[in-house]
Amino acid sequence: MANYSTSQFKNGLKLMLDGNPCSIISNEIRKPGKGQASNKVKLRDLITGKTLEKTFKSGESVEGADVMELDMQYLYNDGSEWNFMDPDTFEQYVINDDAMDDVRGYLVEQDMCVVTLWNDNPISVTPPNHVILEVVDTDPGLKGDTAGTGGKPATMNTGVVVQVPLFISIGEKVKVDTRTNEYAGRS
Amino acid sequence: MNMREDLKKYSDFLQKIRRYFNDQNVLEVQTPLLLNNPTTDVYIDSISITVNQAINAKSTKYLHISPELEMKKLLVSGSGDIYQICEVFRDNEQGSQNFNEFTMLEYYRLGFDIHQLMGDMVKLLKTLGVEYRVSKLSYAQAFFEYCDIDILNTDFSALKIIAKIHDLSTDFEWIEDLQILLFTHLIEPKLKNLPLCFIYDYPAMQSALAIVEGKVSHRFELYMNGVEIANGYDELQEASAYRRCFVSEIDKRSTLGKTSVDLDEDLLLSLSGSLPQCSGVSIGIERLLSQIS
After folding, report:
1. Contact present, B62 and B52 (Cβ < 8 Å)
2. 3-class SS at B241?
3. What is the CATH number of domain B3-133+194-292?
4. Is any Cβ of chain B less than 8 angstroms from the Cβ of A57?
5. pLDDT in tens, B26-67
């Protein structure tokens, strides 16, 4: 993989740091009145999700990470592995259950997701911003409550628990914002 | 706010500065912006311009990066206390706080050491409406207090080990560049909480054109909320000292493969009468304004 000099740094550039692929969130150049410039960079570790702050000497070069983001269709989950397909090549990718912690509850078969590949191996999945899920368990609704005040927890068919308005009942399909885990309306 | 009010505000600001210096009997001067030689500073590049091409007398001139050396010629010639407000120009600048052109206030006070000059700056800032809490830390104190490093007594190889621990580059030609990187990485974030902070007595290797005494150089910087605003020195006096600095800078530029610069013998000749003991400081006007309005 190519190396990148600090002058090529920009948001979204993927670099290898401490053995993990990272993505640049922000890049600020600091040039003292006397002395050499440096780049203060914030990065997200794509494996751990943690944010790092690094200072690079200006002109320093860093190994790039072979990271690609592809649109893929979620096919099915066989209990321990999650299966995705690249709709252009029909190539299938398998992701281990432990990489799916944050997104497991938002994956609906046939939905298009963004799969991040590092050296051709999937490392993370970003579900669509909104998904349609079915309520499988919640307390009985209150008739006539359409104002949506208050709310109650509801368990979805994918296992995720979302706060929904009181009028929502079991069997209904609702739209959920996957970034905030919030109810976003009836489907 | 409309354009006229903005302009008025800036004009009033400049007038307050001029009134302050007038009251102190510090004389306003103007020095040439267009020079025959580029700067020798290792990490600053002059902007060059070609003149007189159409009249077959083509030559290259350089916009000044600071009025410092031209003002020092005046000091050598007996100008006494002087100040200047002018535009300065620098090539290859990048970053949200760095521009190819900015406004600089530079002034020199005869008989002042850096602590007297810092005190004077606080008075100047007060007249501009800046009455924040003032902190003063020596460079060594800052490293002791914020990261437990004895910066003046840590050699290059030990400093590289510290850099490695902090996951910083260790690929440096000179210790001062690594000291600066460590300062940027470890100290500057801590200065964000200090509205007005002077850092003084820089390591001797970072003396620039300041007098060196033992392990430190009598140089200071002013930080406002972590932003570098001003840089001041107890000025070198002898032309021979200036020659040593310029030669060393020129060597460093060539080691780094930067555009080569010739030693300005005319300038050194002008400085040969030697400067009176004085301290001087340059203040970035736009940066100062950004921290007070």
Report:
1. no
2. helix
3. 3.30.930.10
4. yes
5. 999 999 999 999 999 999 999 999 999 999 999 999 999 999
